[in-house]
Amino acid sequence: MPQIFNIIGPTGSGKSYLLEVLKRKLGNKCIYIDTDDIDDHNSLDYLKTHEIDGKNIDTYFKHLNKQNSIDIKQLIENQNKPIIIAGLSIDVSKYATKGYCIRIHPENHYRQLMLRTLEDIRQNHDALHKLLKSKHSIDTIFEYAVKKYKIRFGFIVPPQDVESLIQRYYDVAKRKKYKIMTFDEIYTDILLRCD
Question: How far apart are alpha carbons 90 and 102 in whole angstroms?
Fold first, then answer.
């Protein structure tokens, strides 16, 4: 089995961007997977035929977790190149040979998160407006907002919520024995291992 690197961190911490930067630098030497792409696709596929409410949300998450696990396993099976996986929406720690969590200053994260959320709302304003006026349950609306329109966090959130979100990721990283490092440190470490 090849080396599998897993990069986690809170929404807006730069996981997908780091994956992009590594891809530009390493090219076809590695395989690159953003778990949001898999998770969002499977969620939207499920929402085509199911309405989610408080009564069946557990069924939805069980289905989603099962499908995500199948998809990630298929993507990494029989590979001989290093694999770099960004995200925590699918638990890939059982496959990871090296794990990282992006360390980000709470103030920088807060600003980045709000700018990203604002831009996502701006780009999808009309569709979000239509969704909010639809007959869908609030759980379904929430999943569409997150999975289709990438609204990953409420707007505007109290700064202490961002700090507690970052801490939750650090706690997960410690449990999984992942290294908590800055964007640049992770970038350099992966380059040294793959280049």
Answer: 17
- The token pair at 32 is 């690159």
Average pLDDT over all residues of the chain: 91
Asked if 96 contacts 167 with a C-beta cutoff of 8 angstroms, the reply is no
Neighbours of 94 (CB within 10 A): 10
**Parallel/antiparallel/unpaired status of strands 83-86 and 4-8:** parallel
Which is more confident, 195 or 51? 51
- For residue 88, the Cα-to-chain-centroid distance in whole angstroms is 6
Residue 101: its H or E element: strand 98-102
The topology under which CATH files domain 4-194 is Rossmann fold (3.40.50)
Q: What are phi and psi of 176, to 5 degrees?
A: -85, 0
